[in-house]
């Protein structure tokens, strides 16, 4: 049996061990709480023309990155160009954001052409993947033509001043950036890197972050250094509704929807009661109008297309021997060519689509016009005029009056030549509620 002193020493040692363990656990927890969180990198893909839907998607992602205190936003870009207004708004949002922005032209084979070159120059870090290209930012007309005269010079000088400001802000080659606008120069990834237009060439996102780690940045009077070791990448994607709107907001899609809408409504007006063409046309027209609401539309083009629809409807109602239909086709083609007034070739309307729409409209209008002409020339089968020429039989002798059975009904009849009962008769006239008949050689 242990003495009291031994028991006391045992309890004291156990207490010391427990207190030491608790201290170690607390120190470990405190050390865990003091560890800094890994840096957050926001990554989004923009693979479309630059339009209001893309602008909304990118600016909202930038705002979320600022609120979350992200270390970097990487915009993976692949675009042939877009709306100048949307490009300016995106550039302004990138320059004003608290989060540093890297525009990364990727994957291999991608491009940042035309308006996309402006975004690359507006980024804090310009990066490209091997096998990509950028540049060719000279402003052109809506159908890809050169803008002549004073207006062309104004547009060119405005674009050149904008690109000089963006390139100079980030210490890039201002002269070559201006040549991309003035002379439509394009650059491969290696050329852009060697000539001071790109900061990094990296084959994928992971190596891009490694290349950017430790680089300094300065925005709105604030300076910092990227610390991207062990970064946590957060992917941002368009939701389904945004993807649908992004698909709609393209001149070719908008034009196709408007064409389907007009043709469907025209078919419904020409043949009331068909229902399906009217329903499909109304839905397509509403979607097309949404697309036109965010695209730079020329009202003269819209007016000519509406005039074409009026001519097509009039062709059904008026005997013009095809002149109204021809006028409608001409108005449709001219309106299509004038419909969009953007200054980027990425938004020009396809000539093939215009030709296909005009041919389809001509076939539909011609088909309905033929049907209408046949209906006008067809004999009348209702009313008094519909009875003349009908064949019937005499119920009794008609000499000179009597009753006959014609068109499923019994009529009082007059006959200039006597008709025997059950003999076939032909209606030659209608006088009020009496028929004028003559006998047929063949008896019933």
Description:
The chain is 51% helix and 18% strand. The chain is α/β, with parallel strands linked by helices and 444 residues long. The strands form 4 sheets. It has a 6-stranded parallel β-sheet, sandwiched between helices. A 5-stranded mixed β-barrel has the order 12-13-14-16-15. Helix 10 (251-270) runs antiparallel to helix 11. The model is unreliable at 21-32 and 142-146 (pLDDT under 50).
Tally the helices: 15
DSSP strand count: 16
Radius of gyration, Cα only, in angstroms? 40 Å
**Would you tell me the structural class of the helices and strands?**
alpha/beta
- Envelope shape: elongated
Uncertain runs: 21-32, 142-146
Helix content estimate: 40-55%
* β-sheet strand percentage: 15-25%
Q: How many strands, what sense, and barrel or not for the largest sheet? A: 6 strands, parallel
Distance between the termini: 141 Å
Mean pLDDT: 82
Which properties best describe this structure?
444 residues, alpha/beta, six-stranded parallel β-sheet, five-stranded mixed barrel, 15 helices, 16 strands, elongated
